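Q: Sequence in, structure out?
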Amino acid sequence: MKALNIATAVLLGALSAADAVADGRNPGSVLVYPVIRTDLGFTIVTVTNSATNPATPNSFGESTNLHFHYTNVTSHPLLITRAQNCTVFDRVEFLTPADTLSVMVNCHNPSGPDGNKGYLVVSAENPAAAFTPWDHDHLIGSAAVILKSGVMYQYNAFAIEALTGPGNPTDISPTNGVLDFDGVEYEQLPDCLTVDSFHTLYPHSLALINLTGQPLDVNTVYLSVWNDNEFALSLTINFSCWFHERMEDINILFTQDFLSLLPNDPEELDCHCNGTQEAETGWIKLQSVGVRRYPAGLDVAEDGAILGLITTNNEAGFGGRLLWESGRQNNGNFGLSGPTDPSPNN
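A: Exactly. Output:
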């Protein structure tokens, strides 16, 4: 109980998450939580049913089932942005109108002593028809990640609206047991994300989710990076399923030592108001440029649906926020299964 009180105090100083979609923070029928970590501490997930029409003796009212899909990831031992294994643990909860549910993920998504890491998808389902996803655009939620070091960050879930009409089933195009983010069942997802800023005062960590194809299909992402003086840089990363890694471990480009060698603006991030820059800053555009099937190597899509989050790491804190989005494509999906253990050269 003492640790939870400390975490609550830290929460008061956490930065709020950025807007998830360009047209505002709208409730949805699917919520995506890009980072769930119980290997470094614990995570609290909250889902609220913002619909308020009460149940009656003859109706559930605006109640809904919540299908929790925890994607638990084992990282590749040689490639930090690749998953060696990507498995789903699921459970269903019932949420009455105007109800909110908070769960301790360490209990809700049981694991061994080393905990789990990955992401969470929560989808609304018809309480009168088991395992039937439906249009219930009333879900809102957030997550709080509390690390063993005492660092904490909180972020809003990414909400996705259904498009089949209130109360209608969504698995229609075709009926395949998959959540299709195709502009017919649900909103399309971005293939381009933007990190509005990063700095080297504290180490940042970047999380990305691939939502095109099968879990271990490889999404190639091109990163355009600009420093605080508009100096352009670039790199390409290949990832599968999900990763959440320190940016300086992903590439030296994000380190103070490297960025300080570039032409920069000395008045940027002048923490002591003395005309001297204390740390380097920049921003990033991430563009998916293709998804290929693992292990066959066949093309799956010219670009892939991606979601992301930028957070603190386990040593220092500044908060957590969703990445900005641009571009939409109709290859997004969730629910397919795939092979495991990718080799380093795929």
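The longest strand covers residues 83-95.
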